[in-house]
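The records we work with from here on pair a chain with its fold. The integers have meaning only within a learned vocabulary of local backbone shapes. A complete example follows; check for yourself that the lines match position by position.

:::
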Amino acid sequence: MKPLCGAALLLLLLCAAAAAQNSCVCQKNKRVTNCRMESGLCRCDAIGSGAIVDCSTLTSKCLLMKAEVMGSKSGRREKPKDAFEDTDGLYDPECENSGAFKAKQCNGTTCWCVNTAGVRRTDKHDTDLKCTQLVRTTWIIIEMKHAERDTPLNAESLKKFFNDTITSRYLLKGRYITNVLYEKPYITIDLKQNSSEKSPDDVDIADVAYYFEKDVKGQSIFHNSVGLNISIDNEPVKLEKTVVYYVDEIAPEFSMKSLTPGLIAVIVVVVIAIVSAIVVLVLTRRRKGKYVKAEVKEMNEMHRGLNA
């Protein structure tokens, strides 16, 4: 029995060593499990969907959102405080096998259409809603505001930092970074990418924006990373606010009821002002008309008196 036990222990040790040698760490996505080496590449299973993730590049935003939702449901992490900042915030998306968003997304009996960034671009309807195509987001605007400071940052140094960071950390080719503009205290980055110019190996600007936004908010998706340290000319820069805007190749289909309360309030004020102006104009004209009629009546009476 002892030789057999010794052989079994040796076999277990050999299996453990082989498993350790075959395991790997997904540096570009920590929301994964079951990581292993396949054909010289680290591949893992995405949490929530089980889709195979290539760790040599960015993971699609759809799979990342699905993993984040599953993490929130299981209690592995707290729900982020900014979950509902962009449109409807975090939801459990339906993904294609490729990792892309399905054009139609639903939450129970409520459905809506999304763009390639997974952002809602229509009003919410029932399950009969038809989304004929996944509309591409061709332009993403990332707007940041840094903390108050006495002197402005060096615009050229700032531009170089973000260009270098986006190309090296997020693997986006430089031609897709069309502008980095600094107007104290605002920093604006424009990412543009048409479907015709994007090759299969290029990362998508929607995925880049998602990774970037999580980085600047201290919720990094990268392994062993807490976020992005922004330093311009060796001086740390603290950001106070980051907002991401999406521009699609086809205009979104929102009705008036989906407008924000602020915009509706502005429209109401303008309408009231116009109506008030019309009322004042009508009343003024009526008073003027009465005055003219009274003046004519008085003149006629004077003429009658003279003729008498």
In short: The CA atoms of residues 172 and 202 lie 7 Å apart. Confidence is low (pLDDT under 50) at residues 74-85. The radius of gyration is 31 Å. The longest strand covers residues 137-146.
